[in-house]
Amino acid sequence: MRMRFISSMISVAVGAAVVTVVVMLSVSRTQGQGAPGTTASPRPARIGGKPNFSGIWQANNEAYWDLEAHEARPAAVTQQGIYPYEYARVAAPPVVALGAAGGIPGSLGVVQDDGRIPYTAEALKIRSENAEHWIDRDPEIKCYLPGIPRAMYMPYPFAITQSTNKVHMAYEITNTARTIHHDKVDGPPADTWMGHSVGRWDGDTLVVDVTHFNDKTWLDRAGNFHSDALHVVERFTPMSPDALRYEVTIEDPNVFTRPWTIAMPIYRRLEPNIQLLDYPCIDFTEEFLYGHLRKQQLVKHWEGETIAVDITRKVPPGERLFEWYGK
C-alpha cells in the first residue's frame, strides 16, 4: 500500500512537470507581441484570414464568486447572526479572521435570460450543500484543475497562442492548459478535468465544442456544479482589438432542466511587460490537503493582536490507512 501511494505521488509530480513545460512554451510564444511601449514585431491582426486572438487575457467581473446575480456577503462560509434574517448572516469561524478580505462583492450576474441557473430540484439541494461546505468541497481550494468554463473567468491571466489549425490556452492558475483543435483528432481515452475542445470558425467568431468532462469541477465558488454529462459550447467574438465577447452555452441533463448561457467580455492585458508568472498553488495547498496525515500536527495554533485560532485536524473516512505519512 505504501509503495502504491508513493508511486501515485510520483505520477502526479511528473504530470505537473509536463503541464508546466507546456505552459512555459506557450508563454514564450505569446510574449513580445507588440504591446504598447515594446520594440517587438507587431502582432498580425489576422491569421489565415481569421482574427488573431494571440496574447494574454483576463476577465474582469464577479463570476469567479458566483455566476448568478448576488448581493455582497461577509464571507463564502457564513452562519446565522443575532437576527433571524438571511441578510444578517455573519462570517463563520473558519474565515472570521479574514475580516473584509474574506468578503464577497455583489454582482449583477452573467447568466443570460432570467438570470437563474435552471437546476433540477435534486441538484438545487446539492448546490446549497456545496455552498455550506465550500471549504471542504470546492476543487479550487485543493488546487485541482478548474475546468471549462471556470478557467476563463478566474482572477488570473491566461495566454492564447493561435495558429492556423490549433489554439492553445495556458492558464496561470494550477499551471494548466488546453488545446482547441481545428483539425480532426481522437478524443481522450477517459473523461478529463478540462474536457476535449474542438473548434471551428463562424465568420470572425471562434466556436468551441467541449466534451469529455469528468464531474469533479465546479463552475464558481458558490457551489454551482455539473455532472460528467456536461457539454459546453463557447463563442469568442471580437468586440475590439483588445476585447472579446465570451459566450458559453452549458448543457447537462443530469443537473439542469434545460441549456443555459453565460456571457461576459474578456480583456487583453496591455502592460508592456505582461507575461504569465508561476503560481505554484499545488505547493501552497500541501498542508490543507495532507496536514492531517502527519504523525505530529504542524499547523495547530495562530495568535494575532485581536484573535487566536486553533486548528483541529480530522482524518477523512478512507484515509486512515495513510496516517503513517511522515512528519
Element layout with pairings:
Layout: H1 2-30, E1 46-47, E2 50-51, E3 55-59, E4 78-79, E5 90-91, H2 121-132, H3 134-137, E6 158-162, E7 166-171, E8 176-181, E9 196-202, E10 205-211, E11 231-240, E12 243-251, E13 260-268, H4 281-284, H5 286-290, E14 301-303, E15 308-310
Parallel strand pairs: 8-9
Antiparallel strand pairs: 1-2, 3-6, 3-13, 4-5, 6-7, 7-8, 9-10, 10-11, 11-12, 12-13, 14-15
Q: What does this 3D model show about the protein?
A:
The protein is about 15% helix and about 25% strand. With about 325 residues, it is of the alpha+beta class. Among the domains are: about 1-65 and about 135-270, no CATH class; about 295-320, no CATH class. The strands form 4 sheets. It has a 9-stranded mixed barrel with strand order 3-6-7-8-9-10-11-12-13. A hairpin with a 2-residue loop joins β9 and β10 (about 205-210). The radius of gyration is 21 Å and the shape is globular. Mean pLDDT is about 85; it is low at about 1-40 and about 320-325.
Give the end-to-end Cα distance, rounded to a whole number of Å.
Answer: 18 Å
Largest sheet, spatial ordering of strands: 3-6-7-8-9-10-11-12-13
Low-confidence stretches: 1-40, 321-327
List how many beta strands DSSP finds: 15
Order of helices and strands: HEEEEEHHEEEEEEEEHHEE
Number of helices: 5
What proportion of the residues is helical, as a percent range? 10-25%
Shape summary: globular
Mean pLDDT: 86
Report strand %. Answer: 15-25%
Largest sheet: 9 strands, mixed, barrel
Structural class call reads: alpha+beta
Query: How large is the radius of gyration?
Result: 21 Å
